[in-house]
Amino acid sequence: MRSLYNLSFIFLLIIAAISCNPPQKDTESKTPGESPSPPYVEGDLQDKYWKLVELNGKKVAEYPAQNKEPYLQLLTEGNRAEGTGGCNGMGCTYTLTKPNKISFSQMASTKMACPDMTLEADFHSILTQVDVYVVGETTLSLTDLDGSSYAKFEASTPK
Hints:
Blueprint (H helix, E strand, L loop, with lengths): L1 H18 L29 E7 L2 E2 L11 E5 L4 E5 L4 E9 L3 E4 L3 E2 L8 H10 L4 E4 L3 E5 L5 E8 L3
Antiparallel strand pairs: 1-2, 1-3, 1-10, 3-4, 4-5, 5-6, 5-7, 8-9, 9-10
C-alpha cells in the first residue's frame, strides 16, 4: 500500500511540474501573410556526408574528372566543415542561425596540384557567398538570400 502511495505522489509531482511550465509562444515577428519559416533542425543537416552534385547550375559530372569525390560534411563537434573539391582536402568552421541561415569562415586546404582545379576553385568560392541552407529528405541546397542556388548535394556514404 505504501509503494502505491509513493507512486501516486511521484505521479502528482510530475503532473504539477509539467503544468507549471506552459508552452512558450513564438516571439519571432512575422509580417502579415508571411508563411512560417521551415523548422530549424540541425540534425537534418549535420554529421552527414553530402556529395556535391551541382555547382552554380552546372552538374559536377560536366566538370573534368576529379581525383576524389567532391563532398561536404558539417560536423557538430566544433562546428567544423570538412570536405574536398575533388583534389585537395579542405576545412573551416561554420555558423548556423535561425531560420536556416549558414555562413562559413575562411577556407583552409591542402595545396596539391591536380590537372584541372576549376571545380575546386568554384566550390571554395561559393562557400564565401552562401547565406541559406535548405534540407530535403536526402538533399541539401546552399543558396543566397534570394533563393538562387549555389550548390546542391545528395546525402551519400563516403567512397
